Amino acid sequence: MHFVPWMHVVPEQGALSVDLLLPMTGRTYVARLDGREMRDADEVFRQFYDRLKLPDYFGWNWDALADCLRDLKWLHADHHVLIVESAHEALPGDVAGRRLLLRTLLRAGQGWSSTRRPEGVDLSGLVVVMSCEASSVSGLREQLRVCWEERAAS
């Protein structure tokens, strides 16, 4: 993905260099989510709640998910990698919900990439890998690009 360095769309059988995901120093938390288990928004929230060990105060809505993804301090890690397997199967038939999911992930990655500590040291990053059928890669990349452009325009 050329427009955002923290988001990767790869075919399920494809390879992504581990060097892109894992930093040389610090602790890394890796969460694997399953798009096949994200049939509706509640199941999306359940996947994130379970896999990222979201705090009990999580509000079970898109704004609450965005807030938690900007924080992640309860994971006690320096770096975070989210792997969404079968991403092309998430929220089937829910175009608006899928757009919210993609925009939430893009916004979270942007926040982690551009946040600085007061002393000027970059904070750790958030990397999102969306794995999907090879035939779905270009379509998912296009959906992300459109969501990114919509976000930039708003």
Report on the structure:
By secondary structure, the chain is of the alpha/beta class. It contains 5 helices and 4 strands. It has a 4-stranded parallel β-sheet with strand order 1-4-3-2, with helices on one face. Strand 3, helix 4 and strand 4 form a beta-alpha-beta unit.
Give a short overview.
The chain is built from 5 helices and 4 strands; from the N terminus they run βαβααβαβα. It is of the alpha/beta class and 154 residues long.
Topology of this structure?
Elements lengths: L6 E5 L6 H4 L6 E7 L6 H11 L10 H10 L7 E7 L9 H20 L11 E7 L4 H17 L1
Parallel strand pairs: 1-4, 2-3, 3-4
Order of neighbouring strands in the sheet with most strands? 1-4-3-2
Low-confidence stretches: 116-124
DSSP, total strands: 4
> Structural class, judged by helices and strands?
alpha/beta
The largest pleated sheet is described as:
4 strands, parallel
Strand content: 15-25%
Please describe the structure with a list of short key phrases separated by commas or semicolons.
154 residues; four-stranded parallel beta sheet
